[in-house]
Amino acid sequence: MIVLIGSHKGGVGKSTVLINLLMCLKLKTGKRIAVLECDEQRSVKMWLDERRERGIAPDVDYFECYTNIPDTVRRLASKYDLLLLDAPGSKSPEFRKCLAVADKFISLVDPTAQIEINTLGELVVDVRQAQAAINPGLEALIVMNRCPTHPGDQDASTFRKMMNDDPDWLPVARQRLFSRTAYKRAYNDGVSVHEYSDKSGNKARAEIELLATELNLYSV
Questions:
Q1: How crowded is the C-beta side of 94, counted as CA atoms within 13 Å?
Q2: Buried b / exposed e across 149-188, counting CB within 10 Å, b at 16+?
Q3: pTM, entire model
Q4: Is 81 exposed, middle or buried (0-12, 13-18, 19+ CB in 10 A)?
Q5: Can you state the percent helix, strand and coil of the chain, rounding each to 5?
């Protein structure tokens, strides 16, 4: 399976979510999983460099490609059970090339950030065009990220209902990811939230596992 995590906007947390899905599945399933970096900011590589410098196991099969993306994706997908693509956080040729070959596309949005919500219109157009013209089997989903942890906050629920009530938009996943310190500290240490020791209780682990379940990634 080929899973693309991308956005038309940078800084939405796509590399962080990719890393945590990657390590959750790698540690829990034993599947053959690789990452293809198509974003020249290389946030995944910086995390992996820190991990390797600290000698943290297991290692990650990591590749980069910025030109002939479809052929590289097909070649790697034939060797791995799951291939995770990290596309640029922008409307770009690399992003559209990734859309052309992905089985699943996940885009992240903070439901409290209008600047991120404003980019969804053109993103949906790109996805629908890819589905209509070159990749009819592409499944696309929006995941709410960095949601407020306050139990009384209604922004995420309101956003999901608004999007899911209109079939012209992409569906929004039920599972949301919250704004938690564990995600930032784990990245800084070259680990995932499944490897990070959080004495206050690591709720981020459960969020990632529930998201992986909703995306049917355990069964690939």
A1: 21
A2: eeeeeeebeebbeebeeeeeebebbebbbbebebbeebbe
A3: 0.95
A4: middle
A5: 40, 20, 40
Say if 99 falls within a structural domain.
yes
Instruction: Flag whether 39 is in a domain.
Output: yes
C-beta of residue 209 within 8 angstroms of C-beta of residue 197:
no
Whether the CA torsion 71, 74, 78, 79 is positive or negative: it is positive
Domain that holds residue 195: 2-214
pLDDT of amino acid 135: 98
The amino acid occupying position 206 is: A
Task: For residues 67 and 145, give the distance between their C-alpha atoms in angstroms, rounded to a whole number.
Answer: 29
Residue matched to tokens 């995306």: 215
Question: Is residue 149 in some structural domain?
Answer: yes
Could you give the number of structural domains in the chain?
Answer: 1
* Residue 82 near residue 73, CB atoms below 8 Å: no
Rounded distance between C-alpha atoms, residue 176 and residue 67, angstroms:
33
Q: Would 57 be classed as within a structural domain?
A: yes
pLDDT tens digits, residue range 34-81? Answer: 999 999 999 999 999 999 999 999 999 999 999 999 999 999 999 999
Amino acid at 22: L
CATH number, domain of 86, equals 3.40.50.300
Task: Count Cβ atoms below 10 Å from residue 210 Cβ, excluding itself.
Answer: 15
Residue at 163: amino acid letter = M
The whole-angstrom separation of Cα 71 and Cα 137 is 18
Nearest CA to 59 out of 28, 22, 85 is that of 22
